[in-house]
Specification:
Blueprint lengths: L1 E6 L5 E6 L5 H48 L4 H61 L1
Antiparallel strand pairs: 1-2
Helix pairs in contact: 1-2
Length: about 140
């Protein structure tokens, strides 16, 4: 603690106390891990949104393509070909949905693993900072 005096108009003096403390333990225990987790969460959210947007774009393109092909149906033979193409599309879309789901599951697993690593690292840093703080006292 530091004590200083400030000169007031009229010649009086006011005592001012200022406190200083080391913020490194606070940074190590709270702010650093919070920032790291926020950055991890933002990266995960970006990857998840990108995966969802890519999937939505693919599904929309497939739907629009099928709508355009339906407009080209002129006779019974064209309708038969269109129906056969629909079966192939259904198989392809099932595979696409499966792949998109696997991608999202993979993103979740990656986020979970990185979160665990971050938590373990933060815990060890907090323990180290606490022991350093205790040894200074």
């Amino acid at each position: 603690m530091t004590v200083r005096y400030r000169e007031e108009p009229g010649g009086s003096r006011t005592m001012m106390k200022s406190f200083s403390f080391d913020t490194k333990p606070f940074e190590a225990m709270l702010l650093g891990p919070a920032r790291a987790y926020a950055a991890l969460s933002i990266d995960y959210t970006e990857k998840l949104f990108t995966a969802q947007l890519d999937a939505a774009k693919g599904y929309a393109e497939a739907g629009l393509t099928q709508a355009r092909e339906l407009l080209d149906v002129r006779d019974a033979d064209g309708l038969r070909r269109y129906a056969e193409a629909q079966q192939q599309l259904a198989k392809g879309m099932a595979e696409r949905v499966k792949g998109d789901a696997e991608k999202v599951v993979s993103l979740h697993q990656e986020f979970f693993q990185e979160s665990q690593k971050l938590a373990q690292s933060s815990l060890s840093q907090a323990q180290q900072a606490a022991s350093e703080l205790a040894s200074k006292s």
